[in-house]
Each structure stands twice: as C-alpha cells, then as structure tokens.
C-alpha cells in the first residue's frame, strides 16, 4: 500500500518593509543613547540653567498631578463606551427633543467620558435613533462636567473652589445651547450618518482594553505636549509680555481659548495646565477649561470622521464662539 507524504508549503517571504520597521526602533534608540552619552556635558550644562530648572519643575509637576486622573478617566470612559448599551440612552431620554437636550447634557455629569470616547458614543446614539441635538449635547457635556473632571479641577484649584461650580455651569450651558441651536438651525443633510464602530464587532473585553490602550497613548501624548507648552510659557516667556497679555481681559480670554484648541489636552488633565497659567485671570482660565473639552484639533478631526466634514466645519466654529461667550459671562458672575 502506497503512502503519501504531505509536503509543508513554503513559508511566505518575509515583508522587507516590516523587517525594516522592526529594526528601525532599536537602531533609533541606540542612536539616541549614544548621542546622549557623547553630549552629556553640554546637556548637563543646559539642564543646570535656571530657565531649564524652572521648565523641568513645572513640567514634572503638571505630569505627576494629571496622570492619575488621566488613567482613571480613560478606564471609566472605556467602561461606559463598551459596557453601557447605547439603547439605555434612547430609553432614558424624553421623546420631546427640546427636553431631551438638557437631560442628555446633564447625563454627562454622571457618565464619565473623555473627548476620545464621547465622539463615538454620540455617533452610536445617532445611529440608534436618538435625536442628533441630544446626542450632540451629550458629546459636549460628558468630557466637561463628569465627576473625574470636576474632581481634578478641585484638586488643581484648591484656593478657588468656585472654579468647579463655574466650570460645571458654563460647560452645561454651552452643551445645552449647542443642542438647542442644532434643533433650530441644523439640517439633516449636514450630518452624515455615522458608520459602525470597530469596537462593536469585538468582544467586550477586547473592545475595553483596545479602547484603554488607544486612549492612554493618544491622550497621554497630548498631555505631554500640553505640559511642555505650559512649562515653556511659564519659564521662557518674558514676564512683561505675559503681564501685558494678561492685563487685557478680552485678549487674555481669546488667547487661552485659542491655546486650548491648539494644545488638544484631555479634559481629565487640562485643569492642572490651566492652574499653572497663574498670570491669567480665573475667567480666562475658565474659558480655557470650557473650550478645550468641546473643540480642539483632535476633536475636529474625530467629528469630521464620524459625522462628516460639512458638519464639523459648521459645528466647531459655532461651538468655539458659544463656549467663549458663555464662559466669559459665567466667569464674570461667579469668579
């Protein structure tokens, strides 16, 4: 009886691009390490300068204070996005859109979620039939008034507890105002139906840890950039320039609003950056805290990818104007 032998198919040729990518990481690390050894004396002299010591102090302080809140916020927002079914929101919201907007906005106070999680959650709500105005109100309020954000604000401003109330009021009013504006002026052809999220095709455990890994790397990178910018502004900017900028309330408010858009900080960590900007008034720093979680560079990209560019080009500038106006009015009254 003849026997047949199975031959193992040859292994596929390795991808040269993948091999190059695997080798580039260790090579880059070794190169940087060698440069650090060769340049240790100039680096030691530069780091011993008073400006660099001040920069390092501010940077490390912001990072140490913000990281625990960032990690906790990412864990809770991933749990909300994965384990709370979107149908829960559809059942809990009133049927009348005008009433659903403030209810959805207030829901952000009890459902932690950072900006990275609020956009896909809002997309899931719209996809399941929730009125877009309510979904947008939740999108803006969840990263701004949840318990983690308010607690981090209280820790960052121990001498100004009124900042917590001002942030809560201004952010909730802005979220509701944008929801009601969409009810009155929004058009269905501006809002592209969101596509299905990739996390919805995974198991809950895989989706949870995938969301945590993504948000920690994404938000952590922006936190580092924000801490570096705050340290640079604190240590390197001329004192007279900062005083002149801060002495003009309209200019100071506008400057920090634009800075919030550019830095794209995670809302769980932005209060510590704002607290380090001591040259500016509480109202200007409140504007920084209200604008940042609602519109920044990464949020604009995420909103355009989820709801379409036509939506983002209209929604983002309007949100910026409304947030600046309401935070300024709230700060004038409460701070």
Can you give keywords for this protein?
335 residues; 0% strand; globular; membrane; UPF0718; DUF318
Task: Write a structural description.
It is a single chain. This protein is an all-alpha fold and 335 residues long. The protein has one domain. Helix content is 76%, strand content 0%. It has 16 helices and no strands. The protein has helices spanning 16-38, 40-47, 50-83, 87-92, 97-107, 115-127, 132-145, 147-156, 162-185, 204-235, 239-247, 249-263, 270-276, 282-291, 297-307, 309-334. Helix 3 (50-83) packs parallel to helix 6 (115-127), helix 6 (115-127) packs parallel to helix 15 and helix 9 packs antiparallel against helix 16. It is globular, with a radius of gyration of 23 Å. The mean pLDDT is 79. Residues 1-21 are annotated as: Disordered. It is a multi-pass membrane protein. Belongs to the UPF0718 family. Keywords: Cell membrane, Membrane, Transmembrane, Transmembrane helix. It is found in: Cell membrane.
């Amino acid at each position: 009886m003849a026997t047949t032998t199975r031959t193992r198919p040859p292994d596929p040729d390795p991808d040269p691009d993948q091999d190059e990518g695997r080798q580039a990481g260790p090579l880059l690390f070794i190169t940087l390490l060698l440069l650090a050894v060769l340049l240790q004396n100039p680096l030691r002299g530069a780091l011993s300068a008073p400006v660099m010591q001040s920069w390092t102090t501010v940077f490390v302080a912001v990072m140490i204070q913000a990281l625990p809140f960032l990690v906790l916020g990412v864990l809770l927002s991933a749990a909300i996005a994965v384990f709370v079914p979107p149908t829960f929101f559809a059942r809990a919201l009133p049927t009348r859109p005008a009433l659903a907007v403030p209810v959805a906005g207030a829901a952000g106070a009890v459902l932690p979620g950072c900006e990275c999680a609020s956009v896909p959650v809002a997309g899931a709500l719209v996809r399941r039939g929730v009125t877009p105005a309510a979904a947008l109100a939740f999108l803006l309020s969840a990263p701004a008034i949840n318990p983690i954000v308010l607690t981090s604000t209280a820790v960052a401003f121990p001498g100004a507890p009124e900042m917590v109330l001002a942030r809560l009021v201004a952010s909730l009013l802005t979220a509701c105002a944008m929801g009601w504006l969409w009810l009155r002026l929004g058009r269905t052809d501006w809002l592209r139906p969101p596509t299905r999220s990739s996390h919805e095709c995974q198991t809950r455990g895989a989706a949870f840890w995938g969301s945590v890994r993504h948000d920690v790397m994404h938000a952590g990178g922006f936190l580092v950039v924000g801490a570096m910018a705050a340290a640079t502004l604190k240590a390197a900017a001329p004192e007279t320039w900062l005083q002149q900028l801060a002495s003009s309330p309209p200019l100071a408010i506008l400057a920090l609003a634009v800075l919030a858009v550019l830095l794209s900080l995670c809302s769980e960590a932005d209060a510590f950056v704002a607290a380090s900007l001591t040259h500016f008034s509480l109202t200007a720093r409140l504007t920084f805290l209200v604008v940042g979680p609602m519109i920044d560079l990464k949020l604009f990209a995420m909103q355009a990818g989820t709801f379409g560019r036509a939506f983002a080009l209209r929604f983002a500038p309007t949100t910026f104007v409304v947030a600046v106006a309401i935070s300024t009015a709230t700060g004038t009254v409460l701070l």
